[in-house]
Amino acid sequence: MAADTITMFDGDHRLLRLMHLVSPSLPTGAFAYSQGLEWAVESGWIKNADDLEGWLRDLIAHNLTGVDVPLLDRMRTACQNQDEAALMRWCDLLLAFRETHELRLEEHNRGSAMVRLLEGLAVPLLPSGLVERCQLAGFALAAAHWQIDRVAAATGYLWSWLENQVLTGIKLIPLGQTQGHRILLQMDPAVAAAVEQGLCLDDDAIGASSPAMAMASSGHETQYTRLYRS
What we know:
The structure is a single chain. The protein is built from eleven helices and no strands. It is mainly alpha-helical. The protein has one domain: Orthogonal Bundle (Urease accessory protein UreF). Helix 4 (49-80) runs antiparallel to helix 8 and helix 6 (101-120) packs parallel to helix 7 (135-145). The chain is globular and about 45 Å long. The chain starts with a helix and ends in a 9-residue tail after the last helix. The model is unreliable at 1-11 (pLDDT under 50).
């Protein structure tokens, strides 16, 4: 078994680098944002584990499938080809789909944090500074640099988003740790479907709207007491 393990990782650390990218300890500030979930809990929209799972399923089926997954894939390709014009186009489109000031500010803040992280990890940055505009671009750049394939990159990104949202729900509702991990386990088919469908979308099919999330994020911007950033 030891020999098999050594052979598995010898000269190919792509799996380890993907685990690095999706780690909750990654210092890009994901833990500081609830993406409207805090307001949804405060308003009584989400009261228990079933409510949280339904909320996350809807967001994965629409926003993540229709926007994040296909744009991550295109940004990764643009970074591989050092095509800054294409990367700018996809960053612009992503920010257009972030429906509130809070969501756009999160992209910018986490994008800046991702740049600092990538510099510390010796990942070459593009000269234009485009990666700072959104954290999805930084994730794509790292995936391209470390040669993480498109399916693995999309799956890892989705898992990271989902884990952060579940951890937020555990804290806010609150839920037990076991309940949270049960939600993660039950979401496997939704994650797989989002990756498969999102990677197959044509350019003209990219897009999604989640009015409930937009309302929750807008409400969170002025929420009086809160744990998460706006």
